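Exercise 7.
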Amino acid sequence: MARLRPFPHGWYSVGFSSEVAVGAVVTRKLAGREVVLFRTASGELHVMDPVCPHNGAHFGHGGTVEGETIRCPFHAFRFDGTGTCVATGYGTKPPKAKAAVYPSCERHGAILVWFDEAGRAPLWEIPALSSVGWSELKTHTFRLRGHPQDTTENSVDIGHLTVVHGYEAVQTLSELAVDGPYLTARYAMTRPLAILGRRAAAVTAEFEVHVRGLGYSFVEVHVRSGGFETRNFVFATPVDDAALELRIAMSLRSLSETPTIHPLLRALPRSIAERVLRDQAFRAFRHDVEQDFDIWNNKSFVEQPALAQGDGPIAKYRKWASQFYGREAQAS
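Solution. The predicted structure, written as tokens, is:
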């Protein structure tokens, strides 16, 4: 049976900015290897190979941040954000030892790392989004069996939206379009929404999907009938050849008026109504994501699926996704 290569190149989230404070050293796993995240005194975040090139100690086990450097726990050699050794524990001239670093950036509350098995520099960038007028992120991280191509494919798999998630009146407002590593589409659908434990009337929402590579998905959600908007993020990160860390996050646009979606919200001050609405919307978002887990944990990759009318543009998605593996999309 054909099998997807486990580590397509692209930008992957290894955490959220709030998880790495100034002076912190954090170990994470990406594509079958460990990486170390550290934030310097000035607030700069760097991602580095965990092995000290001097004599092999692990920066994530006893390493500390000193100013703009990370200090090895073994011999106190210090390395800056470029991986260059700038000091030793002996007060002697630093050797030419250099630690491997990964291209990284922080975008709208997420820490993103570029991974490419061929060692190439980033082939595209993740655009920044203004956070003005938007709430702080609510986040959650899951670990499950899966592959980022499968999880991202859900953004174009129209058929499963009704079967798995119970959405009704699913419409395609804008057909799938691709531009290099970027994919976008726009849909509308109707669904029930529970607020404060009480089921509200069904709401109609529009979803505009923005996918950049297989590890980064950003969805603009406009709930026209409820009078609110959210930004939903899904970050699928391969940690080894069979497992994913799936990070989700949501932000709510500041309300211009008290939402009409539920009478209890109308009775609350707007600031409290915003917080309640964000929490409830995130709960619904998390529930939707979790509904896919049983499928992802047990599915197999079918190289040539027997597609039917109603599936959505899966074939076009598969062709687009093949670019993230080099010359061939699958390996036996």
